[in-house]
C-alpha cells in the first residue's frame, strides 16, 4: 500500500476554497486544531463546515472568517463557555447556519456513508428547529413523509457527503488505517460519508500494530487520502489516552474570543504569528506544558 | 450537619423519578448527579448513556463536560452518537431523558437556542445538540433547572425541543414517548396535566412559599389546594452526595 | 447490574412457538448451535428465522421442522456443501422463504436497530429477487420509491424487528456486555434490532475485563436479557480465537442431511438423543476432539 | 515445467482486469486467487474486501470459505456487512466486484438461486448472499466460471443478480455501476457490447477452438473475424501461483 504521510501544509493546499469540510472534534476533545490553524494560515474562504456537536476547531475557523456556511447540531466548549465566534456569526448573519440536532446530523452522515440519498428521522418534528430548516436556506434538504408501511410521520433528510472529512486519531499507520481510543462520536459515519478523508494522528505505527487488533480500525486505509503526523495536534483540546485539555489555554482562548475586537489578537499570536504547529506548541508552553497535561497510563487523561 | 441545599433537594427529587433497571440518557451537571445518586441507592441497575458514546462510566474524577476524558473512565462500552442516540434513543429503549433548559414553557417546550434581548437583538446559545432528539424520543423527559420567571415563560422564544406544542398530544404531533413529565427546580417540582398538557405544581421544597413560586413563574399554573412538600434527601443520600458523589461541590455548590 | 446468567434450557423456555428469531451464525462460523439444539429438544414450532447469510444453525432448525418462515439473504455451508434442509424446504414449499440479499437483510436489521420503520436500498432493483418478494408473501415489506432529493429509484424495505436475537460471542460478563473477536457480520444490527437479546458466550469474564477495552463491546449489557455460558457452544462451527470448525463432523452432518431420510438419524443421535450440550460434545468426540480443534494463540484457529 | 492449466489462465486474465489502487469486493476461490496474484504483481495497492467484514487479510493457510477463520488472519480491519457492503459497496467506492455464477446469460444476468430440472422440479442453490448487491452496485463486475452450455443460457432460469436485464442500460434500470464487463471461463474471455449489452467473444485461451466455444455457449454470440488469444500467464505469475499462492492446488487443481 502507498505511503500517504503528508505535511499539514501540503494536505491543506489540496483543499480548495468553498469546500464542504466535516470536522471531527467535539467541544474540547479531539479537535482538528493543527489543520484548522493551517486552513487559517492559508486563508481559505467560503468553507462549509459540518459537525454533530461543534468544537473549538469550528469556532476558530469561523472566528478567522474562513466560513460561510455551517451545518451543525449545536454545541459549546463545555464549562469553558459558549462558542463565541460561532454564536456571534449567527447573530450577525455573517454565516449561514443550518441548525439541526446531534442525531439528525449523524443520520445525514450515515446516509452519506451508506450511499443512500435520504434517511428518515423522528427528531425535529413539531419544533422550531424544523421550521427554520424548512423555511430557511436548508429547505431543499428536508421533506415530510409518511412511512408507507406504518403510516408514521417522518422527516426525510438528504444525505450529507462532505468534500473532505478531517479526523484526529490517536493512532494510524502510514497507509491510513486509523484507530480511535475512547468514544468515537460521529467520526466513523462522518469520515465514510466524505469524498476525501484526511486524518491527523498523534502517533504513526507500523501496519503490524494495526493488525494486532483489526476490530479497532475505525477508518480503513483504502478510504484515506492523506495522513498527517502531528503529536499534540489537537492541543489545547483533549485526546483520550494521550493528553488532557489545557484549561489555562482554553480560558485564555475564551477570554479573547468573547470580545470581537480580541479575536484577531488570539489568531495573530497563536495562529498567523506561528510558522507551524510545533511553533504554536512552543508559544503555548512547549515541552514543559505538554508534559504537564500528558495522560496518565491508567486514567487516560 | 450543614443545612440541606436546594441543589441537594433537586438531585434527590430527580433520583426518585428513576426506577431500577431503567435506561437513561443524561447530560452532565445535576442530571448526572441525580442518576449517580439513584444508582448508589435504590436503582443499582440503572444504565447511564452519554450521547457522545459512553455507557455506564465509573469516573473517579469530576468531569467538566461530555468531552472530558474523565467521564470516559471505566465505561463498559464506548461507541458514538449512532449507537446512543440512534440504536438506543431512536430505537425506543431509553426510558428517561434528563435535560437542562435555557427556557421551558407551560407546555414543556424547551429552548436552548436563543433569547431575544430587550433591544430585539437575538443572542444565540448552544442550540439543540442531543436535546431535541431526547425530547422527541425518550420515554419520559425530566428537566432540571433554576426557577426564574424569565426561564419559565408562557411560550419559549425558540422551540428547540418539543414538549406538547400548542397543548396537543404527542401522538397527534407524530412524536414518540410521553414527553416532559417533571420540571425540577430549586423551588418546586412541576408536573404536567394529562388532559391539558399544561405544567402544574406538584410540590414545594421545604421552606419555599407558594407565592414565591407563583411570582417566579412566567406562566399561570394550576396549583393544588394544599401543596405537598418535596421530600428532603435522606441522611444517607446527603452523606453520599457530600462525601462521595460531589465532595468538591462542582455541581452542588 | 443484575446477574443475567441462565441455563440454555431456561432461556429457550422463554421463547414461545411462532417467535421471530434472528440467528447470529454465518455458514460454518459462530453458529448458535447450543440454542438451536435446545429449541429442537423443546420442539418449538412455527418459528420465523432471519439471518443475512444462513448457517448450520438455521439448517438444523429447518431440518427439525421447527420453522415455518425464513427471511434470509442466501448462503451455504461453504465448501462443505449447500444447506440441504433449507433448500429442500424451499423446493417442497414446506417453509415460506423470503429471499433477499446479504445487504438488504442487513439494512432491514439496521432500520430496526435505529427505530426507523423503513430504509431505502439500491440492491434488488431489476432482479427476480425483487419480483418474487413483491409478488410473494413479502409483498407488504417492499415498495418502490423515488428519492425526493435526487429523483433516483430506490426500493424501500420495512424494518426488521425480531422478537429474539441469538448471538454467539467469545466473551461476555454476567451482566451481558458482549465482545466479539474477528469480523462481526450483521451481529450488532441484528441484536439491536430485536426486542430481546439472548447471548451464548464461550467465556464468562468479570466486568473489569470488559472495562479494559470498552470499544470492543458490541452488545451492551442493558440490552441483553440472558447470558448463556456454554464453552464449545458453536461446535462444530468455528469460533475465531477459540476453536476451528470440525470438518469431520460437518462432513458427517452434510452426509446425513443431504438425504431426507437420514436427517432424523442425525437429529436423533446428536440432538434429541443428547441430554444437553455437554452430552452432545462428548458424543461428538469429547475433550480429545475439542483439544484437537482448539485455536492456536497467534493464528486464532 | 508443467503445462499451463486453464485455471491458471483464468486467474491471470482476472488479475489483468485489476488496476493498482482499486478496491475490490471478492468471494473465495478463483476470484480471490486472481486478486492475490494482482497484488503480488502489478497492483500492490489493491484493497480486498470480504462481505463478512474483513479488509486486506494476509492468510498464511488456505481458507475453505468466507466463514473460515484462516481468511481473517492479519487483516487491517474487521467490521461487518454494514461496513463492507453498505459503507463501501453501496457507498460507491468499490471499483470491481468479482463473482461466480451458476448461470450467466447473454445480457450478463446471473443466477445463483435455482435451476429447473427436466422434470420441471426446482432445485435451490445458495441464493444471492452478496451477489445481487455486488452486481447492482460495483463499478465493474467480473465473473469467473466454467464454460458449459447449460451455464451460459440465453436467459437465466432465475435472475438473481442483474447485468443488463432485457438488454437495457443500467442507468435506465436504476442500477449503479457499469455492470458486467468480463466473463472469464476455462475456454475464453467474453466482454459486453456497449450498444446491445450482449456478450461478445474477446479472446480464446491458447489451444481452444472457436467451434468448441460456440458449441459450449447456450446463446448466440458475436465473434470477431480473427479472435485474439488470451495471453498466457508469465513465468513469474506461474511461479507465484504454484509456489506461493496456491501450492496445494486447493483452487487451481
Model description:
Chain A is α/β, with parallel strands linked by helices and 301 residues long. Chain A folds into two domains: 8-99 and 161-293, Glutaconate Coenzyme A-transferase (3-Layer(aba) Sandwich); 124-158, no CATH class. Chain A has helices at 8-13, 33-41, 56-63, 84-92, 102-114, 128-134, 187-193, 207-212, 247-257, 260-272, 277-283, 286-293; strands at 5-6, 20-23, 47-51, 67-72, 96-99, 118-121, 142-146, 153-158, 164-172, 178-179, 196-204, 217-219, 224-229. In chain A, strands 1, 2, 3, 4, 5, 9, 10, 11, 12 and 13 form a ten-stranded mixed beta sheet that branches. In chain A, strands 6-8-7 form a three-stranded antiparallel beta sheet, covered by helices on one side. Chain A is globular, with a radius of gyration of 19 Å. Chain B is of the alpha/beta class. Chain B has a single domain, classed as Glutaconate Coenzyme A-transferase (3-Layer(aba) Sandwich). Helices cover 24% and strands 18% of the residues of chain B. Chain B has helices at 6-16, 30-40, 81-90, 131-137, 170-173, 210-215, 235-245, and strands at residues 23-25, 47-50, 54-55, 77-78, 96-99, 103-104, 110-111, 114-116, 122-124, 140-144, 180-184, 188-192, 199-204. In chain B, the strands form three sheets. Chain B has a nine-stranded mixed beta sheet with strand order 4-3-2-1-5-10-11-12-13, sandwiched between helices. Chain B has a two-stranded antiparallel sheet with strand order 6-7. The model of chain B has no long low-confidence stretch (mean pLDDT 96). At the A-B interface, helix 4, helix 5 and helix 7 of A face helix 3, strand 9 and helix 4 of B.
Descriptive terms for the model:
heterotetramer; A: 301 residues; alpha/beta; Glutaconate Coenzyme A-transferase; 2 domains; ten-stranded mixed beta sheet; three-stranded antiparallel beta sheet; 12 helices; globular; B: 253 residues; nine-stranded mixed beta sheet; two-stranded antiparallel sheet; 7 helices; 24% helix
Amino acid at each position: 500500500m502507498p505511503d500517504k504521510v503528508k505535511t499539514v501544509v501540503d494536505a491543506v493546499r489540496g483543499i480548495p476554497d468553498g469546500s464542504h469540510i466535516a470536522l471531527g472534534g467535539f467541544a474540547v476533545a479531539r479537535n482538528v486544531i493543527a489543520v484548522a490553524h493551517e486552513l487559517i494560515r492559508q486563508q481559505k474562504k467560503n468553507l462549509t463546515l459540518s459537525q454533530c456537536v461543534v468544537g473549538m476547531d469550528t469556532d476558530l475557523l469561523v472566528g478567522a472568517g474562513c466560513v460561510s456556511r455551517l451545518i451543525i447540531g449545536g454545541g459549546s466548549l463545555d464549562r469553558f463557555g459558549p462558542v463565541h465566534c460561532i454564536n456571534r456569526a449567527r447573530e450577525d448573519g455573517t454565516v449561514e447556519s443550518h441548525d439541526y440536532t446531534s442525531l439528525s446530523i449523524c443520520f445525514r452522515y450515515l446516509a452519506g456513508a451508506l450511499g443512500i440519498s435520504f434517511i428518515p428521522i423522528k427528531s425535529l418534528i413539531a419544533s422550531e428547529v424544523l421550521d427554520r430548516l424548512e423555511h430557511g436556506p436548508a429547505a431543499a434538504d428536508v421533506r415530510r413523509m409518511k412511512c408507507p408501511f406504518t403510516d408514521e410521520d417522518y422527516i426525510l433528510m438528504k444525505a450529507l457527503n462532505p468534500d473532505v472529512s478531517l479526523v484526529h486519531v490517536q493512532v494510524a499507520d502510514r497507509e491510513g488505517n486509523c484507530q480511535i481510543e475512547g468514544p468515537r462520536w460521529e467520526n466513523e459515519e462522518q469520515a465514510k460519508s466524505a469524498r476525501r478523508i484526511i486524518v491527523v494522528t498523534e502517533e504513526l505505527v507500523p501496519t503490524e500494530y494495526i493488525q494486532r487488533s483489526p476490530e479497532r480500525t475505525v477508518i480503513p486505509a483504502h478510504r484515506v487520502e492523506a495522513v498527517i503526523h502531528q503529536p499534540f495536534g489537537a492541543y489545547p483540546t483533549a485526546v483520550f489516552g494521550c493528553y488532557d485539555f489545557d484549561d489555562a489555554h482554553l480560558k485564555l482562548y475564551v477570554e479573547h474570543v468573547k470580545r470581537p475586537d480580541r479575536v484577531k489578537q488570539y489568531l495573530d499570536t497563536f495562529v498567523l504569528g506561528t510558522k507551524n504547529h510545533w511553533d504554536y506548541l512552543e508559544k503555548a508552553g512547549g515541552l514543559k506544558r505538554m508534559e504537564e497535561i500528558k495522560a496518565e497510563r491508567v486514567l487516560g487523561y | 450537619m450543614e443545612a440541606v441545599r436546594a441543589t441537594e433537594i433537586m438531585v434527590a427529587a430527580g433520583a426518585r423519578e428513576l426506577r431500577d433497571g431503567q435506561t437513561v440518557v443524561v447530560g452532565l451537571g445535576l442530571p448526572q448527579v441525580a442518576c449517580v445518586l439513584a444508582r448508589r441507592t435504590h436503582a443499582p441497575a440503572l444504565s447511564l448513556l452519554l450521547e457522545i458514546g459512553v455507557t455506564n462510566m465509573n469516573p473517579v474524577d469530576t468531569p467538566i463536560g461530555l468531552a472530558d476524558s474523565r467521564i470516559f473512565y471505566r465505561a463498559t462500552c464506548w461507541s458514538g452518537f449512532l449507537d446512543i442516540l440512534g440504536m438506543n434513543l431512536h430505537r425506543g429503549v431509553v426510558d428517561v431523558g434528563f435535560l437542562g433548559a435555557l427556557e421551558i414553557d407551560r407546555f414543556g417546550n424547551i429552548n436552548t437556542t436563543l433569547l431575544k434581548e430587550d433591544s430585539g437583538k437575538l443572542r444565540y446559545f448552544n442550540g439543540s445538540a442531543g436535546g431535541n432528539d431526547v425530547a422527541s424520543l425518550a420515554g419520559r423527559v425530566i428537566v432540571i433547572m433554576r426557577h426564574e420567571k424569565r426561564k419559565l415563560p408562557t411560550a419559549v422564544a425558540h422551540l428547540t425541543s418539543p414538549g406538547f406544542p400548542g397543548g396537543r398530544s404527542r401522538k397527534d404531533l407524530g412524536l414518540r414517548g410521553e414527553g416532559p413529565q417533571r420540571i425540577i427546580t430549586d423551588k418546586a417540582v412541576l408536573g404536567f396535566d394529562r388532559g391539558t398538557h399544561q405544567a402544574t405544581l406538584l410540590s414545594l421544597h421545604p421552606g419555599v412559599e407558594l407565592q414565591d413560586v407563583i411570582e417566579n413563574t412566567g406562566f399561570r399554573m394550576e396549583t393544588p389546594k394544599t401543596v405537598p412538600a418535596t421530600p428532603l434527601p435522606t441522611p444517607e443520600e446527603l452523606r453520599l452526595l457530600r462525601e462521595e458523589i460531589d465532595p468538591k461541590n462542582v455541581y452542588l455548590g
